[in-house]
Every structure is written in structure tokens, then in C-alpha cells.
Amino acid sequence: MNKKQDQTEIRKDKLIKLRDSGIDPYPHSFENRIDAADALGMKEGKKLRVCGRVMSRRIMGKSSFVHIKDVSGQIQIFMAVDKLGKENYALFRDTDIGDFIGVEGDLFVTRAGEKTVMAETFIVLSKSLRPLPEKWHGLKDVETRYRKRYLDILVNPESSKILKARSIITASIREFLECRKFCEVHTPVLQDIAGGAAARPFKTLHNVYNTELYMRIAPELYLKRLLVGGWERVFELGTNFRNEGLSAMHNPEFTMLEVYAAYTDYTFMMNLAEELIKSVAAVMKEKSFPVSEDILGRWDRKDYWQLLKTHTGEDFSPEITYEEAKQKADKLNIPPGKDSLEKILDRIFSHYVEDKLSAPTFVTGYPSSASPLAKQSPDNPMIAERFEIFINGSELGNAYSEQNDPEIQKKVFLKQAGSNTPVDEDYIEALEYGMPPASGLGIGVDRLTMALTGAETIREVLLFPMLKPLNADSRE
RNA sequence: GGGCCCGUAGCUCAGCUGGUAGAGCACCGCCCUUUUAAGGCGGGUGUCGAGUGUUCGAACCACUCCGGGCUCACCA
Fold first, then answer.
1. How confident is the model at residue A416 (pLDDT cuts 50, 70, 90)?
2. What is the per-residue pLDDT across A85-120, written as a single tens digit (0 to 9) for each?
3. What is the reported pTM?
4. Is residue A324 exposed (0-12), middle (13-18) or buried (19+ Cβ within 10 Å)?
5. Strand B interface, A 197-216, C-beta < 7 A
6. A132 CB neighbour count, 10 Å cutoff
7. What domains appear along chain A, each with residue ranges and CATH number?
8. Which among A467, A448, A460, A465 is positioned nearest to A169, based on CA atoms?
9. Residues 325-364 of chain A sitting with CB below 7 angstroms of strand B
10. Does residue A177 lie within 7 Å of nucleic acid chain B, judged by its CB?
């Protein structure tokens, strides 16, 4: 079998042929080019340089049409032997779909009415060695789309659009907060105590200190140290890591926005959160994303206990005892197991209430026992000054008046301390120096992106969602 | 981790009751100077996810493993 059948082998042969004729298949630059969208806006007869990846070819003997794609879109190129010369036209015939090329020529309009560049010269900018996914059906295989995201964003415009939405969203978040004098900071990702949330952390090892470290599960405790230091308005937009299962709503690494404002309580954060999300949503809408009117309209405010009552038909109040909760869980077919009171309530809430909260809703009245870093309500110590934000039945954010009493905080920490969560004495010490009253807000940026783009799984808004690593044998 | 479903050509997918694979796009050869899912003629390029078993014979049946999807569980 002399005949090369494999598409990659055929392309490699073309690469060798290019090199043998003294052409660099990977030149360093292509200067003075304009992008496809700008080119299409220009007048007929204009000479210009465009470049991009060959996406389709229509070869008709001595002339051919190709479409090239750049970040702005696509533009058609006309390659004709009497414009390019025999040698260059032959060179063009060896280009494949997927190759990057650069072209110079005049703009003209074809019989069919499409603005097209009449190539006078053309150059290979990067030879592609593998065939691209099919032009018409695109790339559908979910696993390949996630593992080889570069192909997904290349051939599936919808994927690209949703993923790019993240950039728009983070940029608008920054703009919104910076306008309000919040200062963006970066706190440690590697922490010796993984605090600020309750989740199993990833462990890692620092060689020089020969010590175990944890990937952060939340930046919260570091950000509040900054409040101690006198920085009144800070925010961090960064990755958290939680060593837990994956689902349509969960990825082990995810992006969190945390915002803190000194001298405010959770009512301030409620307004800020609503304004923030609405302002981002407005930007998205402007960019023609299908933002639901619910988000731009009036947001509901509902009480945790009232919601439990409404959706279970059972009577719930902050004064509920462990035994009562257990009985209700039983009645509601929620196996209580060895769960604590707040965990049982949380389970019932998740099962009966969360998916009903489709319009944007602030839920308040959470039990203090489930809110260790929050201040209690002055009216009822069983209740925390806290709210969560729900949109489309998913928990999008969490906020509270921050606990700044070092003694209460320490007691709570001691009560919760276990092998996974040792007491962060250094944080308590910081509070002992004095932290101003403050409120804090956390928003899951991935979930916010889902809500604003209509993505149904978190994987669609993550460029490279976590998948099980392929073992070395089956790796290409 | 449990349950259900899926894995066939580079891509998108067919493949019946078990008889050793097929289409479109892509690719290869020839023709073609305004095409655009270009067209015409000719050509399947495959470790049917992997392995074991049942069988005269396995893409198909059974079991194990690998990877994926949905779902449940886990998840302050």
C-alpha cells in the first residue's frame, strides 16, 4: 500500500512539499491586515489584506472560491489562475480546509452579490495537519466538544457565543464595582486552612516548606482581613476549588465573585446585588443575549420559613426543634439520617422549594445555625442577617451581615471544628484587632452566566469543564 | 458511588432476528474561470471504545473494564 489514505498523512506530505519548495509553512506574521467584518464594510475596488482560517473551498478548475474565518467573521476569497499565476494557484490547490492563509487583493462583488477579495497574492500562514469537523453538522459529540474545546468554538458559533459571554459578564462586573469604588484584589489560592465555606478541599504539597496546603474553597476570610486593615470596599473575582461531585450546577473549580463593603449591612448588599446583576443583564441584552424579562424586572423577596410552609404544606418556624424537623422530614419523604437540624431543613428546602424559585428571588430568614459567619438578627437570634439569591431554581448568590465579634465567631468556629475545619486562630486574632461592621456577597459567576445565556449545564459556560482524565494509553 | 442510556470512517449518523459494515460531508484521482451545503465521473479510507466468553460465525448476545450523558446520592 503505497497510496496514502489517511487525511493527516496527506496533509503532512503537503507540508513536506511546501518546505521542499522553500516555503515556510509557519511564517511569523502577516502585517497590515484588516479583519473580515471591516473588509466587508469597505467599497468595491478597495485593495486590502485579510487573513484567517480556510473554512470551505469550492474549486472550479482554474479558479476557486474559499471562505476564510477570523475573529470578526468570514469573508470570501476568489483565487484565479490568471490573477495569481500558475505557480501560486498550484500552491493554493494544495491548501486544505483548516489552513491559515493571508491574502492581498481588491474587493469586488460576485454575480451572487457577495463581497469578495480577488486574490493577487496569497501566503500560507499556518499549515493544518488534521481535518476539521464537518461544516454542516458541526461538532456534536459532547465529550469531544469539552475535551477539544478549540474545535467546538471554531465550528459551533453558539458555543463560542456562550463562552464569550463570560468575558462580557466579568468585564461588566468589574466596571460596575469599580464605579462604586470597590477595589479588586487577589488573595491566596493556596491556604493552610481552607475556610470561609463548608466543603471538602483539594490538598496539595509545598516542597520547600514541606507542608500540606489546601486549594481555597472561598476567599472570604482573607477578604475580611482586608477590612480589618482599613480597606473598606474590596472584591475578588477568582477561582474556588471544592473536592466534590460534578453536576449540571457544579464543577470542582468554579468562579466566584466576593464583595465586601464596610459600614453596611446585608440590606445594602441586597440592593447592590440586584443592581449589579441587572446592570450586567442589561449589557447582555444589548449584545442580543436572551436575557429573561424576569431578571430586569422586580425581584421577589421571600422568607425561608414561609417558603417551607408554602411548598410543603407543613408548619415551619425558626423555633423548630431537632425532633420536630426529623418528624417532618420523615413525613416529607426526606431521609433525615444523621443530619443536623439545619442540614435537615436545608434538605427539605432544596427538595421542595429551590426549583420553584424561577423568577429572581431573595430568600431571607435563614437559620443562624446554618450561617456561621453571619450576624444574628437583633430581633431573633435564631435568624441570621442573610439572604440568598435564586434564579431559575438555582442558588446564585449568598450574602450576609458579617460577624465581626471575635468572641462569638470563635465560639461558632469551635462548635463547628472538625478534622476538616480546624479553627482559623489567625482570623480570630484579626477580628480581635477590630473589623468594622460590614456586609459581604458571593455570586457564582458560572451560574450567573448560565442564567444570562440560557445555558442548561455549567459545562457550557466553562471553557474547559472538568472531565475524567483519559489514561495515558487511550490518549492520542 | 447507585440506576437508566450511549460509544460504528476525520465529522454527522444508518446498520433488522447473530452471517465479518454503509450514507452524506471531508478526503483521493479526473473535468470544470463568479461558486457559496458549487457541480459531474470514479474511489471506502474502519482496532465497530477495549478485553473475555457463548457460537460454525459477534458491531449485534453475556460478563468485565474504559470513556461519556441523564438522574439519584454526596455537596454549610
1. confident
2. 999 999 999 999 999 999 999 999 999 999 999 999
3. 0.93
4. middle
5. 197-199
6. 17
7. 3-126 (2.40.50.140), 151-299+359-467 (3.30.930.10)
8. A448
9. 337, 343, 346-347, 350-351
10. no
